[in-house]
Amino acid sequence: MALGELPDYPWDLMAPYAATAREAAPFGDASGIVDLSIGSPVDPTPDLIRRALAEATDAHAYPQTVGTPALREAITAWFERRRGVAGLGPQNVLPTIGSKELVAFLPFFLGLGEGDAVVHPRAAYPTYAMGAAFAGARAVASDDPAEWPADTRLVWLNSPGNPDGRVLSTDELAAAIARARELGAVVASDECYAELGWEHPWDEQPIPSALDPRVIGDDLTGVLAVYSLSKQSNLAGYRAAFIAGDARLIDRLTTVRKHAGLMLPSPLQAAMVVALGDDDHVAAQRERYRSRRELLKPALEAAGFRIDRSEAGLYLWATEGRDAWESIGRLAELGILAGPGVFYGDHFPQHVRLSLTATDERIAAAASRLLAFGESL
Q: Which of 122, 230, 240, 282 has the greatest count of CB atoms below 10 A from its CB?
């Protein structure tokens, strides 16, 4: 089946709001736009990772699609140490060129097509639906396993969620996987924000993975977990990610990627080994995001927004009970750029998403403007 017509890229609709935000000088503050619309890291890549990259630049040979032995060992060790998932071997893991290309092409790589359904959350990263479109499959937005149609062949879970920061408990993960297995569907769990838990209990205990033995015991059949180092290690520009789980599915994906030449450059593989082995820089980055959240969240509430979910992850999912585009416009007049909820599904016409990926100074500027606006109401 040929690739059909695709929708326009939605972020192009933000151009006039960005122009308004750049020109705004709210409350006499002419210090410029605060762009909280895109979750692109602004903090430096840690020196130890940059050194590892530099030291590996004599990369004269083709890299291994499956990853070096050191990288595969680092991934499995990280899953055991940080996610509570023991027993993974090299046959259970595979590095990828960032996570977005994997999300976009996983349905195609798994052989899905016309007549197959790809389920994703109601509040969802739009690439889940685009991946279904690329394969000629049908995207279905649903958080209730009982609603999933009989032709479901792939289920995307996302915990913590983008945009809403929702965390799925072990019981919720287990129920979703049990239903997917009844349907003969693969589960792909996007867990890229798992180190960023804020609200109880996730401020004190690890966010569970779909591969957690409390969820699936020792049976990995039909289950994959996707992870990226973009946020926890500020490696968005490196395109450093990986997938883990069912060895049979990993083998299929490996074969496809070998044929397509989809392999992570050798220097990046070396940098990932170092990044996965060091927890200190992750803890430091987490604290940066925590402090920014502690400034921005109460300021939004003072300005009349309600924060929904957002117990983990990189975003605040907010509403003031009006059309999202109206809220986007009101924020732009304060020099603040956010993302409209409609970009993340038709079910959220009154929500906006604000990212924590701005410098301390920019977050402080946004909080100051929001507080001043709240006082003027």
A: 240
Structure-token pair, residue 249: 């599915």
Residue 342: pLDDT over 80 = yes
- Kindly report the average pLDDT of the chain as a whole number: 95
Cβ atoms of 83 and 93 within 8 Å: the answer is: no
The pairing of strands 315-319 and 351-355 is antiparallel
Q: Which residues have CB under 8 Å from 326's CB, separation 6+?
A: none
Give the residue among 286, 350, 351, 282 at the shortest CA–CA distance from 316. 351
Q: DSSP H helical segments within the chain, as ranges? A: 15-23, 47-55, 69-83, 100-109, 127-135, 170-183, 213-216, 247-260, 266-277, 280-302, 324-333, 360-376
Q: For residues 281 and 374, give the distance between their C-alpha atoms in angstroms, rounded to a whole number.
A: 36
φ and ψ of 88, to 5 deg: -75, 145
pLDDT grade for 132, boundaries at 50, 70 and 90: very high
